[in-house]
Design a protein that fits this description.
heterodimer, A: alpha/beta, six-stranded mixed sheet, B: mainly alpha, 2 domains, 76% helix, transmembrane helix (chain B)
């Protein structure tokens, strides 16, 4: 079976920059695995995630999602299948519920079944947000709470593959631990494939964890 | 109605008293404006006399090509003013803006001069050129406001737009808020002008007609047509220009191309 995500000979140069940030990267991500991407700041880890969900275009190389080049998939469809959660969570000026149901207001997702309030409350509880009311203004939440909401919102679209860009970098230790636990649960219990960019020394549990280091423009697998 | 009183050259020079007062203020209070005031005065005389001769020639012209040529020159000048105000380097917005302005303002000017005023021929320069001039001048400001606001908002709210894209939104859905805010920002001045007209200010065109001896009841009708024309033309041109520009702000993967400066 084809890997869920395959990167072939990928190079990327920032607009206006002289030299590439990375070049000739190749990586195959098997379904159900958890890839941890590490590396110093500025090595292009976040750019790699952005290339996968087409928020930027590579200088050369190919990215395949389930064997199909991502450029052949309609961008909204691709981005609904691949859940990308940015480093800094963004909320709109509305309630928790409005933010969680935001994806269902877009044409592509309008046909999907919206979760009801009970389902949303259960999910909040799973994400250690038991005390949070659905009517609470989302912009007034702490970054840690917003990060978990952003993750929930992405998961409501039931993506097969999750791209997490330093999901805990803006969080205190307690919130970070909660997010790590949620990530492990998603991978081991719900069999979601995860690609996580992280700076921390965190090493998740799970049978299919693979660690990669991005440095000197190349990607190498770590023991 | 009496016809307009001519201003002789001597009387015209008498108006320089106002410049003298301005120069005196600059001298006494050391405003260092004397050079600018002097240049400004010379330019006012030179540019307006030149315009007077050009208009005299055009208004007596019976060439439709000359009238349309003047109209194209006016739109071209407007696009340069917009370019100066917007100052955007990442997105090529000038050509779609120019074409939209040319088409929408031409249709508006033809509609007003040929249909509402009922001039014959429709390009009668006495009506067509002023109608075109007013619509270009006012709508140009609205467009500059809208375009500048749109680029600024998309840059500032880049992460919010990308968040929506990543949740399955198309580029139109992801930038809908910024689109609405930009079009509204451009339209508000012409809507506000409708609120204040006749109460807070007497519009230039109406004042000019009254000075020229026109019946105020006719002058207000012209002014009403102009006010309505401006709101309509501004709405149509802003929406059209923004629709064309918006697509250019996103790449083939519907990714936002504008980066923060």
């Amino acid at each position: 079976m084809a890997p869920i995500l395959e990167i072939r000979d990928l190079s990327f140069t920032y607009e206006g920059a002289q030299s590439p940030i990375f070049e000739h990267l190749s990586l195959a991500v098997e379904e159900g695995s958890h890839i941890l991407l590490k590396g110093a700041s500025g090595t292009g880890k976040s750019s790699l995630l952005r290339l996968i969900c087409r928020l930027a275009s590579p200088t050369s190389g190919t990215i395949l999602y389930r064997g199909e080049p991502i450029t052949a998939i309609s961008p909204p469809k691709l981005r609904s299948a691949i859940g990308y959660v940015a480093q800094i969570p963004r909320m709109t000026d509305g309630s928790v519920k409005e933010n969680l149901l935001l994806p269902f207001t877009f044409a592509l997702n309008r046909e999907r079944r919206k979760p009801d309030e009970d389902a949303l409350r259960r999910m909040l509880s799973d994400f250690y947000l038991d005390d949070l009311k659905l009517t609470h203004p989302a912009l007034k939440l702490s970054t840690g709470q917003q990060q978990r909401l952003a993750l929930m919102r992405t998961l409501l679209l039931k993506p097969d593959l999750l791209l997490l860009d330093e999901p805990t970098s803006a969080l205190d230790a307690l919130s970070a631990r909660m997010v790590f636990t949620i990530m492990e649960r998603l991978n081991t219990r719900e069999q979601k494939t995860l690609v996580t960019v992280t700076h921390s020394d965190y090493r998740p549990s799970g049978a299919h964890v693979e660690l990669y280091l991005l440095q000197n423009r190349t990607l190498t697998r770590q023991p | 109605m009496t016809s307009i009183i001519d201003i002789s050259i001597g009387q015209l020079l008498l108006a320089l008293v106002f410049i003298l007062l301005a120069q005196l203020s600059s001298f006494i209070f050391q405003l260092s404006l004397h050079r600018d005031i002097a240049i400004g005065t010379v330019r006012t005389f030179a540019q307006l006399f030149l315009m007077g001769y050009v208009l005299t020639y055009i208004l007596h012209s019976d060439s439709v090509f000359l009238v349309i040529g003047v109209f194209v020159v006016m739109v071209s000048s407007a696009i340069f003013i917009i370019k100066g105000r917007v100052n955007e380097k990442q997105v090529a917005y000038l050509l779609p803006t120019f074409i939209t302005m040319l088409l929408s303002y031409f249709v508006t000017a033809v509609f007003v001069s040929g249909l509402i005023i009922g001039s014959s021929p429709w390009w009668e320069p006495r009506y067509f050129i002023p109608a075109g001039g007013m619509v270009i001048g006012n709508s140009m400001s609205a467009l500059a406001i809208s375009i500048e606001r749109f680029f600024k908002d998309l840059r500032q709210e880049r992460e919010l737009v990308e968040m929506k894209l990543c949740l399955g939104a198309g580029y139109r859905e992801a930038s809908a808020e910024q689109f609405r805010a930009a079009v509204k920002a451009g339209m508000i001045p012409s809507i506000n002008a409708m609120m204040g007209v006749g109460l807070v200010f007497i519009p230039g065109m109406m004042s000019g007609q009254i000075l020229a001896g026109a019946d105020p009841m006719i002058a207000i009708r012209y002014q009403i047509v102009v006010m309505l024309m401006l709101v309509g033309a501004t709405a149509v041109s802003s929406v059209s220009v923004m629709l064309l520009i918006r697509r250019r702000c996103f790449g083939s993967g519907e990714e936002l191309l504008l980066t923060k400066e």
